[in-house]
């Protein structure tokens, strides 16, 4: 009889422990706790920050912001040249500009685009279609208003809210 009572008490204690754990995992905060527990949402945000320079569209296309450097446009004006990496894993040939749109901001203002990077010999990388499994380096140049303020490069998909963004300090 003593064994049965002990077993019943053990079951009650185990169920009570599980119930207490369930409350904590569901986001319950004890009244005497001074800092809230770390939630799954905060770690997701941290992961997005780590990969914020890359965007994937429909699992088939990937674009990554590689670099942004000071340059001169073909008229000698200050500009930045952005370097992207574009990968196509779909069954049809596509170009970077068919899948993604990109923007450079300086002081919160969109900068116009020259589309090309003179002198690199890769004038059409932005428009060049690539097939399944291929990756291409894409260059795009933007005239800028000054060489001291940082610029923010963003890549957006056309029909989703997916985007990548990276800020660069100009040197």
Describe the overall structure.
The chain is of the alpha+beta class. The protein has 3 helices and 8 strands, in the order H-H-E-E-E-H-E-E-E-E-E. The strands form 2 sheets. The protein has a 4-stranded antiparallel sheet with strand order 1-2-3-6, with no helix packed on it. It has a 4-stranded antiparallel sheet with strand order 5-4-7-8. Strand 4 and strand 5 form a beta hairpin. The longest helix is centred in the N-terminal third of the chain and has 24 residues, at 2-25. The protein is elongated and about 95 Å long. The N and C termini lie far apart (81 Å). The relative contact order is 0.17. Residues 22-51 have low confidence and may be disordered.
Which helices and strands occur, and which strands form pairs?
Layout: H1 2-25, H2 40-50, E1 54-57, E2 61-72, E3 78-88, H3 96-99, E4 100-106, E5 109-110, E6 134-143, E7 151-157, E8 163-168
Antiparallel strand pairs: 1-2, 2-3, 3-6, 4-5, 4-7, 7-8
Runs in which pLDDT lies below 50 for 5 or more consecutive residues are 22-51
Number of strands: 8
The coarse silhouette is: elongated
Number of helices: 3
State which percent range the strand residues make up. 25-35%
Specify Rg, calculated over alpha carbons. Answer: 26 Å
Q: List SSEs in N-to-C order.
A: HHEEEHEEEEE
Determine the fraction of residues in helical runs and give it as a percent range: 10-25%
How would you write the strand order of the largest sheet?
1-2-3-6
| Secondary-structure-derived class | alpha+beta
Brief descriptors of the model:
171 residues, alpha+beta, four-stranded antiparallel β-sheet, 3 helices, 8 strands, elongated
């Amino acid at each position: 009889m003593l064994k049965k009572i002990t077993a019943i008490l053990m079951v009650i204690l185990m169920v009570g422990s599980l119930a207490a754990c369930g409350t904590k995992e569901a986001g319950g905060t004890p009244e005497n706790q001074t800092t809230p527990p770390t939630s799954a949402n905060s770690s997701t945000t941290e992961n997005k920050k780590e990969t914020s320079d890359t965007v994937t569209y429909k699992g088939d296309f990937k674009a990554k912001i590689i670099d942004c450097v000071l340059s001169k446009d073909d008229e000698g004006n200050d500009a930045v040249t952005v370097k992207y990496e574009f990968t196509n894993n779909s069954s049809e040939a596509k170009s970077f500009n068919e899948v993604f749109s990109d923007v450079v901001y300086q002081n919160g203002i969109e900068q116009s685009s020259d589309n090309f990077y003179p002198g690199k010999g890769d004038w059409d990388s932005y428009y060049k279609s690539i097939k399944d499994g291929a990756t291409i380096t894409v260059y795009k140049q933007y005239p800028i208003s000054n060489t001291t303020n940082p610029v923010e490069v963003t890549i957006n998909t056309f029909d989703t809210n997916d985007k990548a963004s990276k800020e660069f300090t100009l040197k």
